[in-house]
Amino acid sequence: MIGGINDLNFSFFGYAWMMVNCMSAAFYGLYMRRSIKRMDFRDFDSVFYNNIIATPILLLLSFLVEDWRGFLAD
Amino acid sequence: MQIVVVEDHVNLLVKDAVNSVVPGESGNMLPAPISMSPKDALSLKAPIPTTSDTIFALSAYCFSSIGMTVLNKFVLSSHRFKLPFLLLSVQSCVCVCFLIACKQSGVLTYRPLTRKEAIEWFPVSCLLILMIYTGSLSLKYLTVAMFTVFKNVSIIFTAFVERQWFGNQVTPLMVVSFILIVPWLHLFLLTLNCKYISRCLAR
Hints:
The complex is a heterodimer of chains A (74) and B (203). Chain A has 74 residues and is mainly α. Chain A has helices at residues 2-6, 12-39, 45-65, 68-73. The longest helix of chain A is centred in the middle third of the chain and has 28 residues, at 12-39. The chains are: A mainly alpha (74), B mainly alpha (203).
């Protein structure tokens, strides 16, 4: 935090998103650990489930929110 | 960003290896973001990891972590690329394909997808998406050094949230490792600032 004040490339958005990221990382970590225990996941089960559920959601969000037309025209 | 998940697993692998090399220290050698007992961690092929295993795991973790951050920074910071969700979905798709290929060739195994468990796991995936998306946005605006610093801060933050909410003990060894993180953060910021100050003076 103290270093951030001296950071000459200070970017409000960067720090704001980083704060959200810190919080979500904490909740993700704790919640995932609880789920792993409850569902008795091991090894790569959690990686596989995470990714296979996240891929369609990410693709859908990309279609809805992002500017594909500009990207394809490029 | 998706490699975060794999990275956590490598982290666990490293923990596992370190634990068996130093039997006295139990579980807190590296404050991993997701700290599980070694039993839950990757089951290594060899029952007792040797020092070379440890070195391999550590260097694999370092290379993947640095490579992931720098490559993502490079892609996200370029002005022509404005689709972070697409980047993340491609990464997670590649991860799924890799896992399927590994299962086909018998390198590793995981349980098949079932409807009930997928529904139960859904909130975790939503949190993952929130995390990797905010991570990619912050990486877009921040320098790699600052991003790394904050990633370490989030490990400490996680431990304290855990203590506040679940009453889990923060062991003395964990406190020591947190204190050890702090001077490194300062060194990071110091070199960062020196660079900027010297750049300003040169102007």
